[in-house]
Amino acid sequence: MSKDVKKQLQLNASLPSGSKKPLRKSKNLKPKGSGHTQKLTETVEVVATPKVETVPAQVKAPEYDVDAAMDVVFKPNPGPQTSFLSASEREVLYGGAAGGGKSYAMLADPLHGLNDPNFSGLLVRHTTEELRELIQKSQELYPRAVPGIKWSERKSQWISPRGGRLWMSYLDKDTDVTRYQGQAFNWIGFDELTQWTSPYAWGYMRSRLRSAHASELGLYMRATTNPGGAGHAWVKKMFIDPERAGKAFWATDIDSGETITFPKGHSKEGEPLFKRRFIPASLFDNPYLSDSGDYEAMLLSLPEHQRKQLLEGNWDINEGAAFPEFDRKVHVVDAFEIPDSWAKFRACDYGYGSYTGVLWFAVAPDEQVIVYREMYVSKVTASDLADLILEAESKDGTMRYGVLDSSLWHNRGDTGPSLAEQMNQKGCRWRPSDRSRGSRVAGKNEIHRRLKVDEFTEKPQLVFMDNCTNTIAQIPSIPLDKKNPEDVDTHAEDHLYDALRYGIMTRPRSSIWDYNPAKQRTGFQASDPSFGY
Ligand SMILES: Nc1ncnc2c1ncn2[C@@H]1O[C@H](COP(=O)(O)OP(=O)(O)O)[C@@H](O)[C@H]1O
Ligand SMILES: [Mg+2]
Q: Best-predicted range by mean pLDDT among 181-185, 415-419, 514-518?
């Protein structure tokens, strides 16, 4: 975030006028729960004794219903802010546009819990200066939401009249986590999560998330952030890539992509451990900032990629991205059953040591290409890969053809048939991809052409089903080659991109005539006379 934006954010950070209703007059302040009646006004008890002439008034701590009081002082904006505050998943990220009301919601989230004497919360920011800002906001909000709540400067902690505690602290270097060693919290919040360069602090603090009262209080980790920042990539992998925005999913390991499960020996061994969810934020969710339009105008004046991150909350924009036009809202579709009559084919970029990417394509009657399945595996031999592919597509009907990295016809292992031949012999048929000079750039251009939204149909000619999570994550994050901006940077993780390129370069058409791969063993043979494939 630029300094200007930061400054502007701070300027806008004062409390809104919308919440200035005096607490006592509010009709909303009804006692909740059963049994005891709560007093709606402060009780002033005058204790008179005959001997004393002047009697000081003794003010008794009022018994407020924190939930009801909070409703009056803090009303979540409809939409994402409300979803964030009512989310039940273990780990939730509220991320997106600056000014969407994320930090404000983060402050409001522990308020309900503070009502409970056993509540123990921790809210962190990356550095002490940023923490100051957050504490300041909490000092405007908390005393009005929880009458009688006390701030201890020494402990940097809020303590509610009922005993619930919230520690506001910082976590800068990884070694700072020792501050929290041996502590237990049932609520942990990280404001501006992408400021942490690695997932270490977040992972470590998860180990501090426990409570003897977990069943009543719940265990929650909450984060807010703008896209961009040093931790953009890992935060995106953890919260954004695994599932479409707003949908809860079982938490995955961000390196392997596998679901995190209960460990060996646990009674629930092998079962998924907890759920995550990403809730996107937009400036327009927050009427307190968006109504005036000034702030929006300021964000609009930023350079394009920064504007997309801060105003639109777009996670796929990276400076220097090869496919900046890729947009989840446009290019990702819900998975659906492909009709039998649609032409299908597959493409593969093989790598044993690194990764093998396989994509399956279908061509709709209107010529739109749908990537409907992906396989992304590592350390799988060509022969095993053939089995995996045949199994995956066993119910797909006819596979018109498959294209594979042409170098696999030269690669023979020690002796024997080439890797391509090994797969062909298993019945997993391939023909070689186009690897001629200029084919990389031509392939990239062809993908651009297909990603473009057609003026008349208002649809792109290439979409991805939402189950292809690795591909959807990879394509928008592939950088351009700095030396040759016509091509992508080949050092980036690009196996699925290469598979996509091989597939798209066959210029698939819905009417493509049946290609019989059995005729082809080695070498190049055209299956489509007009295009030479
Ligand atoms: N529900 C709300 N009620 C009142 N004011 C709000 C609410 N949500 C946001 N605001 C106001 O909008 C300002 C900007 O929100 P903030 O949480 O700082 O945005 P973000 O962290 O997403 O950049 C806050 O300082 C606050 O004044
Ligand atoms: Mg904020």
A: 181-185
Residue that has been written with the tokens 């991320």 in this structure = 95
pLDDT the model gives residue 345: 97
Closest by CA position to 506, among listed 479, 478, 528, 481 = 528
Give the Cα separation of 371 and 359 in Å (integer): 7
**Sequential DSSP letters for 93-140:** EEEESTTSSHHHHHHHTTHHHHTSTT-EEEEEESSHHHHHHHHHHHHH
Triad 96, 102, 104: Cα angle to 5°: 165
pLDDT attached to residue 414: 62
List C-alpha distances in Å: 134 to 14, 338, 464. Answer: 11, 50, 40
Nearest atom in ligand 1 to 192's CA: 21
Least confident window among 102-116, 180-194, 480-494:
480-494
Crossing angle (nearest 10°) for helices 495-504 and 469-477: 90
User: Cα(24) to centroid of ligand 1, in Å?
Assistant: 24
Residue 82 beta carbon below 6 angstroms from any ligand 1 atom: no
Of 336, 375, 332, give the one whose Cα is nearest residue 496: 375
Question: What pLDDT sits at residue 401?
Answer: 95
Ligand 1 centroid–CA 109 distance in Å is: 13
Given a contact cutoff of 8 angstroms between Cβ atoms, the answer to whether 105 and 205 are in contact is no
Residue pair 149/110 in contact by the 8 Å Cβ criterion: no
DSSP designation for 353: S
Cα(138) to ligand 1 centroid in Å equals 12
Nearest alpha carbon, ligand 1 atom 1: 76
Helix, coil or strand: residue 517: helix
Q: 13 CB under 6 A from ligand 1?
A: yes
Q: What is the strand order of the sheet 220-225 is part of? A: 150-152, 157-159, 165-170, 120-125, 187-191, 220-225, 91-96, 275-281, 249-250
Q: What is the pLDDT of residues 262-280, one digit of tens each?
A: 999 999 999 999 999 999 8
Going along the chain from its start, the domains and CATH numbers come out as 80-310 (3.40.50.300), 328-517 (3.30.420.280)
Identify the pLDDT of residue 289.
73
Mean pLDDT of 96-124: 91
Is residue 141 lining ligand 1, measured as CB closer than 6 Å?
no
pLDDT band, residue 512 (cuts 50/70/90): low
Q: Where are the beta strands (DSSP E) in 300-405?
A: 332-333, 343-349, 356-363, 369-377, 401-404
Q: What is the whole-number distance in angstroms between the Cα of residue 483 and the centre of ligand 2? A: 37
Cα torsion 298, 300, 302, 307: sign: positive
Q: How far apart are CA 303 and CA 306, in angstroms?
A: 6
CA-closest residue to ligand 1 atom 8: 101
Out of 12, 194, 286, 296, mutate this one to test ligand 1's pocket (max ligand atoms within 8 Å of CB): namely 286
Q: Which atom of ligand 1 is nearest to the CA of 191?
A: 21
Does the beta carbon of 75 lie inside 6 Å of ligand 1? yes
Cβ of 79 below 6 Å from ligand 1: no
Q: How confident is the model over 35-57, as a mean pLDDT? A: 41
